[in-house]
Design brief:
The chain is α/β, with parallel strands linked by helices. The protein has a single domain, classed as TIM Barrel, CATH 3.20.20. The strands form 2 sheets. Strands 2, 3, 4, 7 and 8 form a 5-stranded parallel sheet that branches. Strands 1-6-5 form a 3-stranded parallel sheet. Bound molecules: zinc ion. Zinc ion binds next to loops.
């Protein structure tokens, strides 16, 4: 009986110790989260760009696709629109001639990993291999190296962003308009979502591996053109960046955009 009690006490204290360790493991992460966005990643990560003028960047991920990408390229050429392609290394190795065509026609090529894993869950060496191998495939297809990367699923840690930028010189490009076209909701839905949410400086995410996305593009391009948007590559958009002017009116102290401080007057 006494031994039994002792055992329980022992187990309880073990649980206590484990809880303390668990807390320790959690604290630095939660403590880190709210702060780093604007300053630490400024100039490294972009999900949109503040520009003076109606400029936007269309981006297409996960290709090239032997079947669909050439169709998209025909359409972009007919509209004289330059886009940015975030390529999967495996597909580059399989269709280097499509990548060469993308570059010939003025589009930008960027690194989207070799096999589309979740980079945030990988070792540094694993990530390095994914990016390096893709960069090599791109270089052998077009003779140049990319300067942008986009993590699959947008999944990447702040620490990874920093070392990748330092080691590869890549800017990390996310997006602010996502039509969720990979769920294949149909061309009309894809078109409406993009047209409704795109604003000056937007980086629009789409995938040139889904037939419905390609079908949506005539509608997307026509309507965005009708709204007066001008299409540039992501690097061109970034080069146009202008500082965000401090907001003059209602909230007296806000110097950064989107303050998380509780405000008595909700604006949305
Ligand atoms: Zn992707």
């Amino acid at each position: 009986m006494l031994i039994f009690r002792f055992l329980i006490f022992y187990l309880l204290s073990l649980v206590g110790v484990a809880a303390v360790y668990a807390n320790d493991a959690v604290v630095p992460q939660t403590g880190e989260k709210p702060k780093p966005a604007p300053t630490a990643e400024a100039g490294i990560t972009f999900d949109w760009v503040h520009v003076d003028g109606p400029y936007i960047a269309m981006t297409f991920d996960d290709g090239p696709s032997a079947k669909l990408t050439p169709k998209l390229l025909d359409l972009l050429a007919a509209h004289h629109i330059k886009a940015t392609f975030f390529l999967i290394g495996e597909n580059v190795a399989e269709h280097p001639e499509i990548v060469a065509r993308e570059v010939r026609e003025g589009h930008e090529i960027a690194n989207h990993s070799w096999s589309h894993p979740n980079l945030a869950k990988m070792s540094d060496d694993g990530v390095r291999g994914q990016l390096r191998k893709t960069e090599d495939a791109i270089r052998s297809a077009i003779g140049n190296r990319p300067t942008l990367m986009r993590p699959p699923y947008g999944s990447i840690s702040t620490r990874q962003k920093k070392w990748i930028n330092h080691e590869f010189g890549y800017k990390i490009v996310l997006w602010d308009v996502d039509p969720l076209d990979w769920r294949r909701p149909g061309p009309n839905v894809v078109c409406n979502r993009i047209v409704k949410n795109t604003r000056a400086g937007s980086i629009v995410l789409a995938h040139d591996i889904h037939p419905g996305t390609i079908e949506a593009m005539p509608c997307v391009l026509n309507q965005l053109e009708a709204k007066g948007f001008k299409f540039v590559t992501v690097s061109e958009l970034i080069a146009m960046e202008t500082p965000i002017p401090p907001k003059p009116s209602p909230t007296p102290k806000s110097t950064t955009r989107k303050s998380t401080a509780p405000s008595p007057t909700p604006h949305n």
